[in-house]
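Tokens help. Consider this.
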Amino acid sequence: MLKKLVLTGAAGRLGSYLREPLSNMCEELVSTDITDDIGTLYPNERFAQVDIAVYDQIAPLLEGADMVLHFGAIVDERPFEELLGPNFVGSYNIWEAAHQHGLKRVVYASSIHAVGMHKKADFIGIDAPHKPDTFYGLAKCFSEDLGSMYWDKRGLESVCLRILSCAQVNNPRALGSWLSYDDLIQLVTRAIDTPSVGFSIVYGVSNNDRAPVDNAKASFLGYRPKDNAEQFAEAILADAAPADLTDPGEMCQGGPFASVELGKSATKSMNIVNDKKKT
């Protein structure tokens, strides 16, 4: 069992599903968020309200930790100036604090939006070059490159989880991009318990028949998703409008993020169900 794990973004929807399994993997789980409450804590969990954009707030919490799971960010497209603190500076603070405190690994919630302008038909692998669809995606590219550089220059391991869409399946794109919560937990677990990862990228996607990305070169992590969005296909496609083949949102990996104007919200049009786990 690990001694200590730190989770950022603990108040978020994905964080709500990760807290319990993470608490079972370590003696102490430190959950952090900018909000003032994350609900009832698990027996070995403590909460710290911090702003990851402020180094002196987040850095002390990493002392004595084995790994940090960095899920904290603004999770939408915004003007660059709004993303600069939490999504860019926040990532630097995490990697630098992890280095300063001698952590073994950073597990980072990256995103398909780091490669969002690639065509879905290209079936890209983990070695696809960065092709961000938004400032939000650009922050993911920056953070992945931080992870690569800190491994090359300082020996700090990273696993970057390029999550496609971890939310209820309610649109045609999600038939390929869905990551179930159970598969999310397995993905994070493998990112933690694989003995050696160096700098690694893996797509966060379930075992969907229509998955538009290739995880073959990340197979050493042992991530073997079990869920398949095809179970929802008949109902979803029965109500779906014909695809607009001129719309980047239909043709590119990033979905609505690929067609939205820079700096404007992409999630407003996505009908994401907030089925956050209650504690």
Remarks:
- The longest strand covers residues 26-33.
